[in-house]
Amino acid sequence: MHRPTAPRLARILACAAVPVMLVATGCSDSDSGSKKESGKTSAPATPSSAAPSVKAATFGKLPEVCKTLSEKTIDKLVPKAEKKEGKALPSSDTNDSASCFWSGLNDEDVKDLQFRTLTVSLKRFASDPTLGTGEKRAQDFVAKQTSVATTADGAKDAKTDKASGIGDEANVVGTTTKKDDNDHKNETVVARTANVVITVKYSGAGLQGAKTPDADALKNDAQDATKEVVTAVAAANK
């Protein structure tokens, strides 16, 4: 019997801005015919405008994204994962943004084929005089990521809730998508811990007529996984 294969997933890239600083100088004049001060007084040099100071960001680095979840967690959320260690997705600078992906098909019961995918994404924001503190920039990104999750991959029936006890703030977005004639339930947690934003997307589907997974169960597992990632971010910065 041939086993069904997992669908391909999209990758996320991120970028950062670089501040620019300017400096100004001035000059003076004196009477060359006398050692005494001339009647004319040179205009004082105009001081350059100092860049406004901002509070330093709490976290200066990201953990290895594929190691933010334990093997025990992966075994639970993604049974029979193709790569238990996860697959790191491309990033121009893994200290600013990083993502890891897991997928697996549990085919122990041919009448209950269950497919699961899990993506953990991290985005770190540095404090910037022109853009604001790392925490404020991260707060803005949480709002954007939450909005994106409501329509990603043609999602429908989006339901957004606040989640407590996960970092400094967290939202959970539940959606449904249709792929290869199978209904996929998706639970996306967008959480912030100081200046780092964590996005955990957990999806499940029953293949070939198997029962669609329970959305509440997926939601609880996604939130537990996010808490584990929050802990990993703090540990990486000790």
Q: How would you describe this protein?
A:
A hairpin with a 7-residue loop joins strand 1 and strand 2. The chain has a 7-stranded antiparallel β-sheet with strand order 1-2-3-7-6-5-4. The protein is of the alpha+beta class. The radius of gyration is 26 Å and the shape is globular.
List keywords for this structure.
about 240 residues, alpha+beta, seven-stranded antiparallel sheet, 3 helices, disordered N terminus
Main β-sheet: number of strands, strand sense, barrel status?
7 strands, antiparallel
Helix/strand order, N-terminal first:
HEEEHEEEEH
The strand count comes to: 7
Broad shape: globular
Poorly predicted tracts of residues:
1-39
User: Which band does the percent of strand residues land in?
Assistant: 25-35%
Structural class: alpha+beta
Mean pLDDT: 85
Radius of gyration: 26 Å
Helix content: 10-25%
| Number of contiguous helices | 3
Distance between the termini: 50 Å
In order across it, which strands form the biggest sheet?
1-2-3-7-6-5-4
Summarize the structure.
The chain has 238 residues and is of the alpha+beta class. The protein has helices spanning 71-77, 134-149, 215-236, and strands spanning 87-89, 97-106, 113-124, 156-162, 169-179, 182-193, 196-207.
Show the helix and strand layout.
Blueprint: H1 71-77, E1 87-89, E2 97-106, E3 113-124, H2 134-149, E4 156-162, E5 169-179, E6 182-193, E7 196-207, H3 215-236
Antiparallel strand pairs: 1-2, 2-3, 3-7, 4-5, 5-6, 6-7
